[in-house]
Amino acid sequence: MGFNRNFESPEFLIKDTIPLGYTGYYFTGVHENHIFLGHKSAPAHILRYDLKTKDTIHLNFNIDRRQFPNFDPDKLKLAIQYPNTYFVDGSNGIFIKGNLINKNINETNELEWRFDNYIQIDSNTIAFRTYDMHKQQNMLAAIDSIGKAINIYHPKKQQDGIFDTDGRLFQKNNYLIYLLYYRNEFLVFDNTLKLQYAGKTIDTISTAQIDISTFDKTLTISSPPLRVNKNLFVNDSKLYVESIIKSNNQSLKQFQQQVTIDVYNLKYGKYLHSFYLPKINRKRPVEYTIHKDKLMAIYDKNLVIFTGY
């Protein structure tokens, strides 16, 4: 059974394109007129872009690897809540807090937890995804600064509990959202990981279409799964979901040449409307954010700022 989308929003036009020089950048924080980007291959490097002056500044922290012999820079995730900067290697439970003004490391900690999808909620609370060995499935958790669990949540298991519950954790304002990749579901929590409701995206794929096989006691995907949701971002009380499922009232050309964004009321989970963003050089955005009424996206090696929002 298919579905239709309601396209109401005007077309978004490109206002500015800022060359970044490399792929691998991601949004890591905002403050006043500044947008901060981290880089997957340069964990101690921060790029700051000024929306007003259009200047870019490169900032670098000195993280002493000798202090953390198990530190894996390839697994590091950066988060900024100005002026605090957080460097976290979830694969080894390493937590490093710095100051963006003086670029000093102020606090270090090693947690017993092992995790990914790290989110810095505030200076004393983080959320992430981990693996529950007892239930043999993915689990979401919010913990305090000493590693004590505040709340945990297990996404509904349909097959294996790993691939079928795969998704992305995102936080903004007073909302934590976990978007499922392979089924039409998103979970909305408060900042302590208390579930507010389970929402449904507009498509009709309620069961993850994944073929799972086991080899040498390891679960693997035996054929390419059907991906439903690709990415998300939040502004005010609206949730924006990048969908890769075509609706009945979209032509194949429209769907293939542009990026489809579905908008939901975040308070109730109700679908509102959809709009298109362009592909640039046939590539989709890899990251999105909205700040000061500006919609921004990272395409390949460029930061793109749109008008029309």
UniProtKB/TrEMBL annotation:
It comes from the Bacteria. This is Uncharacterized protein. It comes from Christiangramia oceanisediminis.
